[in-house]
Design a protein that fits this description.
Elements (H helix, E strand, L loop, with lengths): L1 H11 L5 H27 L4 H22 L6 H27 L19
């Protein structure tokens, strides 16, 4: 399966160190995928939109499961708690975005304070 297959399997099974999971496979790979997505879809051709969506979706599932499972592969237990909290925040955020897209309620969150319209002067 090669080195890449071993890395994918190690992260998925929780055998990778937390720092590598977060900084290499989450942060760096996410930035790379977003830049690739922007380059291919916006600059080249929108035909790449669906394959990139699938690739980003697979990466997101893989890295969130992997980060959860690798959370305590660190010398500092509090970092494991922080990593798991980050996964929960991401899952809630993804669920919220999917809910907004499904219901068409994007950008309709109530503000904590009412917005007053400025008076109309003639």
């Amino acid at each position: 399966m090669g080195v890449f297959g071993n890395i994918v399997r190690d992260v998925w099974n929780g055998r990778e160190r937390l720092w590598a999971t977060v900084w290499i496979w989450y942060a760096a790979l996410t930035i790379f995928l977003q830049l690739l997505n922007r380059a291919l879809v916006l600059q080249v051709d929108r035909v790449y939109a669906f394959p990139m969506l699938i690739l980003i979706l697979l990466h997101t599932i893989w890295i969130l499961v992997g980060m959860w499972r690798c959370a305590y592969n660190t010398d500092f237990r509090w970092l494991g708690h922080a990593a798991r909290a980050w996964v929960v925040i991401n899952v809630i955020g993804i669920a919220w975005v999917l809910y907004e897209r499904a219901t068409g309620s994007a950008n309709t969150l109530p503000l904590p304070i009412p917005v007053q319209e400025p008076p109309i002067t003639t």
